Every structure is written in structure tokens, then in C-alpha cells.
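for the writeup, i need someone to sanity check this before i put it in the appendix. the sequnce is what the collaborator sent (i think, or maybe the updated version? ugh). structure was predicted straight from it, no edits. if anything looks off just tell me and ill rerun, i have time this weekend
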Amino acid sequence: MIMELARTAIGLVAAFTVPTAFNWHSKRPWHAIFFTLVYGLLTVASSGVTRKEAVALLSVALAAACLAVLSGPATWKFPNPKSGWTKFRTAVIRRANPSKVQYAVAAVGMAAALVPLILGIGPVLRFVRQQVIGDAKVVITVSGLLIAVFGCQRLISRVVRPLIGKIKEKIESSEFDESVEDFIKAGPHVGWIERFILFAFLVSGNPAAAALVVTAKSLARFPEIQQAEKLVGDYYLLGTLVSVAVALVTSGVTRMALGMPPI
């Protein structure tokens, strides 16, 4: 019972927070709402959606819609299927204006590739339902991982935002080299990988290996930090500490939800 409750709670948190890492609420609001609904439904559907779970899911989806409205997206238009088809057609056929023969060949090729998928979709869906979605431990672990890697990105960004603002001012005034801007832009992506590895080691009960990850990251980025100003070093240190703290907290909560000690 407790694990089922933990699965629902952690899953809904992941459903709401993951789109914030990619700014979908302001750039692609329908993507954010759709992800929240679909992932939230997956987390509660394995044991049958109860009335309380349905209300919780709809509430989280409504919260995602409200956040999208408050984020002031430039447009609420749905993705254009025609432009998507044009990109897909160009990628498959490699020409902007393919001939009828090329269309036919592409259609036959795609149909041939889809046949094995169609034949195997039944067993795959049964496996996913029974072994993945139906297993509360899998859902809890995946949801915790998503929260650690992506869901807390907005929190980390807010913590380091004042330093980033000062660094950008110095870049614009030519006090800092443009390479510093590349260093800053790479920060979130490095953080995703860092938290993924940290979470995996911490949840599996290997904190010593997790410490090696932070050490390896520091050694890899040390030459760039050494060449930069103290302000950039402060940004790196603060971002790393917050990133590690997020991985520690989310892994601890996940382990407790799985019935294990936090560390």
C-alpha cells in the first residue's frame, strides 16, 4: 500500500517537473501538458485508476496548464502535421521533391520495416504492462531518476541565475572571453549526465562510486576553471553543490519509497 502511494506521488511529481527542464511550458505548452497527462497516467494505470488517483492526475495536469499560461508562451498552436511530414519525407527520401517512384519505394520500405514491429507489438505491450508499468519498483525508480536529472533543473537554474547574469554582463563588456559563454551553456547538459550517474550509484547503494563521479568531473573541468575568473569558479562550485544535493535527496527519497534505508 505504501509503495503504491509512493509510486503515484513520485510519478506525478516527475510528470509535472520534467517539462520544466526544457521550458516546454513557455515554448511548447501542449507538449508539457501532454507529457504530464501521459506519464501521470502511466504511473497510476497499472493497478487500475481509482477515483483519488484520477482526481490527483487531473489536478496535476491542470497545474501544468496553469503554469503554461503563466509562462506566457508565444503560441498555443498545435504542431503543424504538414511541416512534420515534409521533414520526415525529406529525411527518408533525401530530396525535397521526390518522384512517384521514390514515394512508392519509400512506402514499401517503411511497410516492410513495420511488419516485424506489428507482429511483436502484442508481446512487447504485455511485457511492458507486467514487468515495467506493473512493477511499482520500476516506476518509482524511473520517476525518481527523471526528477533528479530533469525535474530539479529549474531549481538549480534559479540558484545559479544571479551568477549567470553577472557573467553575461562581463561577456558583453568583453571582460570575459566568449569561451566562458560556451562553458556556461554546457553546464546544464553536464549536470544531467552527472545527476544520472550519481542517482544510479546512490540508489544502488554505492556512495563511494558516486564520489568518484564528482571528482572526475572536477578534474575534467579544472583547466577551464583555472583559466577563468573567480566568478566563473563560484558558478561552477555552486552549480555542482546544488546538483549533488539534488541527487542525494532524490536518491534518498527513492530508496525510502522502495523500502530501503536512505543511504
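The two ends are 23 Å apart (CA to CA). The chain has a mean pLDDT of 82.
thx in advance!!
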